[in-house]
Amino acid sequence: MLEASRNAKAALREVMIDVRGVSKSFPTRDLGMVKALNTVDLTIHGNEFFTLLGPSGCGKTTLLRLIAGFETATTGAIAIAGLDVAALPPQKRPVNTVFQNYALFPHMSVAENVAFGLQMLKVPAASIKTRVAEALDMVRLGGFAERRPSQLSGGQQQRVALARALAPKPRVMLLDEPLSALDLKLRKEMQSELKRLQQETGITFVLVTHDQEEALAMSDRIAVMRGGNILQVGEPREIYHNPSSRFVADFIGESNLLPGAILGRNPDVTVSVRPEQIAITPAIEGRPGRVKGEIASVTFLGLDTLYEVALPDGSRLRTRTREAAAPLAEGEDVVIDWPDTVERELLN
């Protein structure tokens, strides 16, 4: 057990994907060029679950496709496991990709779908049978080998796609929004499955998603992207509690962004306070607090209740609190407060 832990930590220090000065431009219909990536630098380690997170059009899928070899960089270099892959086609790179569209062959059985990539790699037949069985066991579909994709649920089809990608034993698994077609409950289950598979195999997983909650739940580290740039790279807790910019604070989870000034320094700052860090109590004469307000709306979320509070200056704050025995009501006067330690001052 100790040796396995040491090996895992050593793998985590290994540079698995090294992106240096990579940019990518695409031609437009008017014969111009549009830049999808702006001189990106990024290091992803071995045995790491890494997520590229950002809104549509931020460049995250373009970066994934460059790593996979489906696109060629305009400038810069990409190395995988120490190997410059610029001249290598996708099938020669030590990576496999799982897409949003599972792309299973409907006329093939589950086992045949998983075996297809191995056959293209000319793996011996005896080894193919063993690897298919191992891959299906990893995704908990050992008893489904003879079924056709049409006989499977969406979640089971996703598992087949994962098994097919795992069977060749790649160094890197690239995941292009693979859970977006699943319903909420199934998506949660598959998040746990993906994390389990990454930990069990030690393969470096690189996920592309626009779902902040998904990224926070699954990742060892996250790169937040916008407009072809990487704005911040860090562990989920670091990015959530210490965002580097107003955009990151607003994009990762919910945040109250308040105008502020630092006396004697930069007057143009934004103060970020998370809704769950705000205390809200009924207004009572003499009760201390930062500001008084009025409950503008109440949204019951099960475990939590979301309150929107109208402030005297016309602005609004959102707070999330555990459901109380006597919940607050719309129109009720309240006092809100938060400790100085949870404030984050962000340059605009």
TrEMBL record:
Reactions it catalyzes: ATP + H2O + polyamine-[polyamine-binding protein]Side 1 = ADP + phosphate + polyamineSide 2 + [polyamine-binding protein]Side 1
Sample GO molecular function, one term: ATP binding
Domain of life (superkingdom): Bacteria
Known EC number: 7.6.2.11
InterPro entries per record: AAA+_ATPase, ABC_SmlMolc_Importer, ABC_transporter-like_ATP-bd, ABC_transporter-like_CS, Mo/tungstate-bd_C_term_dom, P-loop_NTPase, PotA-like, Transp-assoc_OB_typ2
Signal peptide: none
Domain ABC transporter, residue spans: 17-252
Keyword Chaperone: no
Enzyme class, UniProt record, top EC level: translocase
Keywords from the UniProt entry: ATP-binding, Cell membrane, Membrane, Nucleotide-binding, Translocase, Transport
Function statement: Part of the ABC transporter complex PotABCD involved in spermidine/putrescine import. Responsible for energy coupling to the transport system.
Family statement drawn from the similarity comment of this UniProt entry: Belongs to the ABC transporter superfamily. Spermidine/putrescine importer (TC 3.A.1.11.1) family.
Subunit composition and interactions: The complex is composed of two ATP-binding proteins (PotA), two transmembrane proteins (PotB and PotC) and a solute-binding protein (PotD).
Name used for this protein in its record: Spermidine/putrescine import ATP-binding protein PotA
Organism annotation: Labrys miyagiensis
